[in-house]
Amino acid sequence: MTIPSHVIDMLRKVRATFQAEPLANRMQPSEAAFAALRPVRRATAASVAKYWNRLLETASTQDRDALADSLTMADPALFDSNIENFIGTVKIPVGIIGPLRINGLNAHGDYNVPLATTEAALVASYGRGAYAATKSGGISTALLYEGVIRTPAFVFDNLVNAGLFVEWVVNDIETLKAAAEATTRHGKLTSVEPMVDNNIVFLICRYTTGDAAGQNMVTIATNALCEDINARCPIPMKAWYIEGNFSGDKKASFLGLVTGRGRKVSASVTLPAKVVETVLGTSVQAMLDYGQVANLGSHLSGQLGAQAHYANGLAALYLATGQDAACVAESAVGITRMEARGDDLFCSVTMPNILVGSVGGGTSLPSQSAGLNILGLKGAGKGAALAEVAAATCLCGEISIVAAIAAGHFTRAHQQLARHR
C-alpha cells in the first residue's frame, strides 16, 4: 500500500512537535491544591466582588467593568432566577429588521424584529429578505401543532415485564395525568405514547405549555408522573430515569422532524418575479436552479430536513428575546421549499420544533424584555405569535441567502459587510 505524500508530510509535522517524555509528564493527573468555587444562587454586589477578586488574577479591571457595568450592578438580584455564580452580563450587538409583514393565524401585522448577533452581514441579509417578503404582501403563517415532550425511561428484567408495565400505564393513565398536571397551572399532558425496546420502555409524554417554552415545566410534571408510577406500579422495576435521551431535547432528531417538539409552524410567501429581480438581484429561475442543487446537497450529506441556515436567524432572535439559545440545536430543523408559481416564486418553511415563550425563562430580564416589547409580544397570550414570527424570520433568511448564492453575490456581501467594512 502506498501512503499519500500529504499524509506522510502531516505525520512528519506531528512527529516534529512530539516529545514523548515531557508530554507524558504534562498529561499526568495533578494533585495541586485549588480553591473550590462554591455555588451562589443569590447575586449581590458583595458576591460579584468576591468572584472578581478571584478573576482579576487573569482578567483586568476593564474586563470587570465591561461585564459588571453600572446598569447591570444597579440590581444584581434581577438575575437570580436565571443564573448562578453571577459576575455580570454580556453585551451582544442587537440589530433590527422590518417592517416584516406577517399575515398569520396568531401573528398579524408589521413587526420590527430584533436580532442579537456578532456576525456581520446577518442582519442585512435577513432585512433584505424581510423587505422582499413585505413588498410581496407579507408572509402567511400558521401554528400547526404544539407539544413539548419529555421521555422518561423504565428498565425491567425482561420483555414480559416491559409489556405488563405498558398495560398498567394505559389502564392508569388518568391518574398519572392528574399527578403530572398537579405541578403546573398551565401545562397539560395531552398524550403518553410507549416506545418499547425489549426490557426498556420509553414513555413519550407530550404537553401543551401555555405561553412558555416549557422545558422546566414538563420536566417537573414528568418527574411527578414517574414518582407516582414508582410508588404504585406493581411490576418489578430495576430503574427509571427522568429522560431516556429519546425526546430530542436540544438535539436534532428524526422524532422532532416527524412529530414535532415545541411549536410547529409553517410560513410562506409568493415573490413576484419583479421583486426577485429588483430587490434580490437575481431571477426566479436562478433561485430554483440553485435550490435544486442545495436540496440534493442536503440529502446526500444526511441532513435532517432540507434548509439553508435556520440557525442564524433563530439564534439571533432567541438571544434578543430571552429564549433558551441551546434549543436552536433542535429548532433549526425543517423543510424549505421553493417552487415556480407561473412567473413568480413560492417560498415556504415548515419548522416542527420551535421552542419559544413570551413568558418565563429569560424573557423577564431587562434587555430580553425590551426585545419582546419591540415585537409587541411580551406576556401572556403571545407565545403562539412569537413562534410564527420566528418561522417568518427564518423564511426571510432562506430567501435572501438562496438569492445571494444564486446570483453569485454571497462572498462579495460578506467581504463588504464583514471583512472590509
TrEMBL record:
One of its GO terms (biological process) is isoprenoid biosynthetic process. It comes from the Bacteria. CDD domains: HMG-CoA_reductase_classI. Its EC number is 1.1.1.34. Pfam families: HMG-CoA_red. One of its GO terms (molecular function) is hydroxymethylglutaryl-CoA reductase (NADPH) activity. SUPFAM superfamilies: NAD-binding domain of HMG-CoA reductase (SSF55035), Substrate-binding domain of HMG-CoA reductase (SSF56542). Keywords: NADP, Oxidoreductase. InterPro entries: HMG_CoA_Rdtase, HMG_CoA_Rdtase_cat_sf, HMG_CoA_Rdtase_CS, HMG_CoA_Rdtase_eu_arc, HMG_CoA_Rdtase_NAD(P)-bd_sf, HMG_CoA_Rdtase_sub-bd_dom_sf. PANTHER family: 3-HYDROXY-3-METHYLGLUTARYL-COENZYME A REDUCTASE. This is hydroxymethylglutaryl-CoA reductase (NADPH). It comes from Loktanella salsilacus. The lineage of its organism: Bacteria, Pseudomonadati, Pseudomonadota, Alphaproteobacteria, Rhodobacterales.
